[in-house]
Design brief:
With about 230 residues, this protein is α+β, with helices and mostly antiparallel strands. About 35% of the residues lie in helices and about 20% in strands. The chain has a domain at about 165-230: SH3 Domains (SH3 type barrels). The relative contact order is 0.08. InterPro entries: PhnaA_N_proteobac, YjdM_C.
Length: about 230
Amino acid sequence: MGREPVRDRGLELVCNDAADFVLVLDQFEVDRQAYRVDKLSIEQTLQERSGSTCELCAATDNLGVYAVPPDAGDSADKCILVCATCREQIEDPDKVDPDHWRCLNDSMWSQVPAVQVMAWRMLTRLHAEGWPQDLLDMLYLDEDMLGWAMSGLTEENDGNTVRHVDSNGAVLEAGDTVTLVKDLDVKGANFTAKRGTAVRGIRLVADNPEQIEGKVSGQQIVILTKFVKKSN
């Protein structure tokens, strides 16, 4: 009689005999070691790139690799080196200390795309504080980087039941461009935002699904979602 196949459900392997199973395990160990080497290589690259400091706040203690979502972090270009404080506040919005993130006033000018993307996300999360909006107005991301940055916000909001929709019921997202569907008198600014005006790079008011923020004629204003239409 032939030998029974050797099975290992944890590795989802089916081998014809024990020798084959040993060979597969050896290859698995090689792959695992290669994965560890890749991770160490990424961390070493980030240490050299950052000068062994947090790429967001410049702290020097408790540093580790953070893969900027939604990318898998399989290269240094998709990762940043962060301290434990930054990591905790990135991953848990309830623990965010707005004053800590004033560090972005400096780090947002990094030439590293992953750092710029993370700075944009945190400033967008904190924009209701006021001062982050001024920094966002100065921070330029090209189309690809903005798409990367916005995809992370979409992931963060997946579990959030609050949805901002325009006058046609289309879902609005941070960074969208909308068009005004009627003339709007802007209180305190002494001008009228005309129907058809395009408002680019909108911000969502986190606790009010009926409001967005955007810049019209150089003024940052709050606009009701029922008065806008999402641009294609």
